[in-house]
Specification:
- The structure is a single chain.
- The chain has a single domain, classed as Domain of unknown function DUF5300 (Immunoglobulin-like), CATH 2.60.40.2890.
- The termini are far apart.
- The chain is built from two helices and nine strands.
- It is of the alpha+beta class and about 150 residues long.
Length: about 150
């Protein structure tokens, strides 16, 4: 009989330990606003200055908890010219003329990945792109909805 009591106590303690550990599990991080890229890291400032007839295009570097990609710079290009680099959780706003432009990204380990990006003042469409890293740690760029 004492063995059965021991087994029940052990099972109860194991259940309690699992419940306590589950309560301590890491909660997802709260969403934090994107930080603007510091002006000192803009190497072609003409693309980041508003002007008549220009449309704002927001390029964001999505946050990653992956240590392998978290501290990599994401070099950002517009029409073949490097404009800036973005770190984890930063964004930049380009002011571009309506029409098709090439937005590209790379890292020190990846070739430039370019995407034709149609800039439009039509509010039915978004002028936002996200820089992400895949499971293979390769950089990618995608257009996103509002």
């Amino acid at each position: 009989m004492p063995t059965r009591l021991y087994d029940h106590c052990r099972a109860a303690l194991l259940t309690l330990a699992v419940a306590v550990l589950a309560g301590c599990a890491a909660a997802p991080a709260e969403p934090v606003p994107f930080k603007p890229v510091p002006a000192a890291r803009i190497v072609q400032p003409g693309y980041t200055e508003p002007g008549t007839g220009l449309v704002a295009v927001d390029v964001r570097r999505e946050r990653s908890r992956d240590v392998i990609v978290r501290f990599r710079d994401a070099l950002v290009y517009v029409d073949g010219e490097q404009v800036t680099d973005l770190m984890n959780g930063e964004h930049v706003v380009f002011y571009l003329s309506p029409g098709v432009h090439r937005i590209g990204v790379s890292t020190q380990f990846d070739p430039v990945v370019e995407m034709p990006f149609t800039v439009t003042a039509d509010t039915r469409y978004t002028n936002r792109a996200s820089i992400v890293f895949g499971d293979d740690h390769r950089i990618a760029l995608r257009r996103v909805a509002q």
